[in-house]
Amino acid sequence: MENNRVNQAIEVLKSTGVRVTPQRYAILEYLLTSLGHPTADEIYRALEDKFPNMSVATVYNNLRVFKEAGMVRELTYGDASSRFDANMKEHYHVICRECGKIVDFEYPPLFQVEKEAEEKTGFRVETHRMEFYGVCNSCQKEKVV
């Protein structure tokens, strides 16, 4: 299943004229198979053994290419580092205030808020953003010990 997502993403890149290098493939594969929402530095550290000549700048440049192709979204939540999410389906995030872990969360009734906002204001709403903050299970357990 995951390999299929990677192959579909590669086809999207090729269709936009982007050349698929081994580094680009590895970054994309990491993003699509990662359950987290990694920073560029985390992606770099995960792949540096496999690609010792790759720089953090290469990772950033490829993330920009993926973002422009509509394959990833950049998440900015208060701290200085952007995180990247390859799940392009509409969803929300729950963020741990202790460790920064981000977990995807879907709740379809929240998307009715856009429709309600349009009806009440006359705007054509294009998107909305909502985050939930708390403390993840792991951090809760650490505090108990």
Automatic annotation (TrEMBL):
InterPro entries: FUR (IPR002481), Fur_C (IPR043135), WH-like_DNA-bd_sf (IPR036388), WH_DNA-bd_sf (IPR036390)
Any Pfam family: FUR
SUPFAM superfamilies: Winged helix' DNA-binding domain
UniProt KW keywords: DNA-binding, Repressor, Transcription, Transcription regulation, Zinc
Lineage: superkingdom: Bacteria
PANTHER family: PEROXIDE-RESPONSIVE REPRESSOR PERR, ZINC UPTAKE REGULATION PROTEIN
Record family assignment: Belongs to the Fur family.
Stated name of the protein: Peroxide operon regulator
Organism in which the protein naturally occurs: Kroppenstedtia guangzhouensis
